[in-house]
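Issue 218. Parser rejects a valid record. Input:
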Amino acid sequence: MPKIKFTKTELKNQQDAQKQFERFLPTLQLKKQQLQMEVRQSADALEANLEAQKELEKELAVCIAFFGDDSVSDLISSNVEIREVVTGTANIAGINIPTFDHVEFAPEDIDLMATDWYVDDAVSALKSAASLREAYKILQEQYDLLAAELRTTSQRVNLFEKVKIPECRENIRRIGIFLGDMNTSAVARCKIAKQKAEERAS
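Output the parser choked on:
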């Protein structure tokens, strides 16, 4: 515990500090609750994305059975080229996080009349898989940012609740006792001085 001065000024400083901590604490607690909810939702979104990827992998496994010819595989993979991952930003509990919008792919170069029916479906499925993977990266970044902010906010809440406010209360108590003792001592000295003055006068 830091050293304190046993004065009325210090008493006021400690009382003001306690009021300030107690005023900010509910806001921090509310932010912590909001972040806890957002982190849970972010974790759920990550899990849902992984499930969607697994389902799509099952669908792709069926398409892969048709890819006996390397030229067909090359044709499909060459038509799934990511040009840009379009993202945005959102403000959650006072922090900016990236959001996934969509993936822009390079234009396809497929002659539908000269290729098998499943090529178009395979290209579409691969694009969906690529989009899910890119979305997962953004979702992971969201989760990491929210979890880090939750840790910081939780630390602040604990600091206020368990350290700063109790510290101020203890300092106020100690200064109050000291000033009370000083006041009692001053009154006692005053009474003794008065009594001696009266004795001398008589």
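Fixed in the parser; the record now loads. Helices lie at 8-64, 70-78, 117-201.
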